[in-house]
User: What shape does this take?
Amino acid sequence: MHDNLIILAGGASSRMKKQVSLDNLSEEEIAQANERSKGLIGVGPNGRPLLDYLLLNAKKAGYKNIYIIIGEQGDLFKEFYGSDDKNNDFHGLNISFAVQYIPEGRVKPFGTADALFQAVEQYPELNTLYYSVCNSDNLYSAKALYALRETASPNAFISYNRDALEFPLERISRFAIAKLDENNCLLDILEKPTADVLDSYKDAEGILRVSMNAFKFDGAILYPYLKNCPVNPERDEKELPTVLLNSLKKDGNTALGIPFSEHVPDLTAKEDIAEVKEYLKKHYPQLDWNA
Assistant: This one.
């Protein structure tokens, strides 16, 4: 099993920064939502960020080396998790930072595939290793993260039961859905699916599966596809699902969809902050790093 987890935290957080009027947020919480990377918003007791809980679950899952991809203005991460560029000790985790630089002529980062490519360029040893990748603003369970470490498949992702996600239906309907074969290997990922295609994407158990950007990759296999990832014409970004699908189509590689049926707390917009706080109160009464 591999020990490396890469956390994507260099995005622009544009949906979180949208101006809305909410009575259940304090001025401080609104200020953090407007100014901080989403994973650093203080949703836990004593103002600790969501990323603490993700790191706790990563430690429980057995990861040792954590690479956090931050933006060019990401110094606040170092105030929380270590002032050095690499090899900071945080509750027994080895924390290193990679920077996702914005290309000249753009005003925001170039997407998740670009973030990962810049990280493996800064830490080329990753191109000879297996590693997991996930978002900083989703709270994946320790069991899901462990499943990525445990699988023998060189490439894999957590394949979530869409009906188990506790989001409004309108929001869930926009999630990309995965088509799997009878062995749960990935065939396709469809962004923004329409109702007329849903039945054809159900798995062997009749379940619609979605990806929440929790992956395991073989660094050596993935690198050329990261390097040559095309730009999505609609979103003007380079995206990890594109990289994965291209590697499957061109080299005949496989990616296992590991089935999970559980909720994944998510900080996408200001409306999510109060719900995530309540979830943490219920499921994480304290942060026990020694458990």
